[in-house]
Predict the structure.
Amino acid sequence: MSLARPHLVLLLALLPALACGRRELRELSRASDDVATAVRRGDARALSQHVVVGARHRVDYAAILADKQQRASWARGLARPDQVRPGATLFVAPDQPLSVVWTGQAWVFAEDPTLLYDQSSPRAALRSLVRASTLQRWDVLLALAPERYRLGLSEDDLRRAWTEGEYASALQTARERLQKHLAEPIVHDAHEAVLDLGDGEAAHLEREGSRWVVVDF
């Protein structure tokens, strides 16, 4: 297959996003104003409603709302941010969500769309896990495991676990659940990441050097 057709498909897929870029920018600005109002009023409950569920417990509301001067400082920054950059998730395949960002003039990819098994971000690592387990790329799955797991694990161990082991069905069900949540917000810092899967379940990742690995899902 030539490169022309995939590039055309990607371009066509981006056209709706290009059309709504300015609308999303306005919505983000409005949301930022709403957060500024909640901070100015010292309303921790209203402020928490503007934070993704998985991150609410990690926000230091007391520090933000500590006193009138502190609230005013935060409110000014939120009401008049230096820059607002909308982000979105573009599905070029059911198991391939890609991050795109609005630059002010156009939507652009925030990651390399040609990499099948990327580990440069938490979402990329989870996407790679779904694809590798589906295509039975046990070598890729092994690379996606934390080093402490890899020490006593082989590709054949993974093959048996996913295809004939006692927990094969459970693993496949967990993969299907993970795939349905791939585009949802991932809470992360420089070292750890969590994707809320609902019903008290979550996918946990951690960084190893420049790569992200999947602790559990």
User: Anything to note?
Assistant: Confidence is low (pLDDT under 50) at residues 1-19. The beta strands are 87-93, 96-102, 107-109, 186-188, 192-198, 201-208, 211-216.
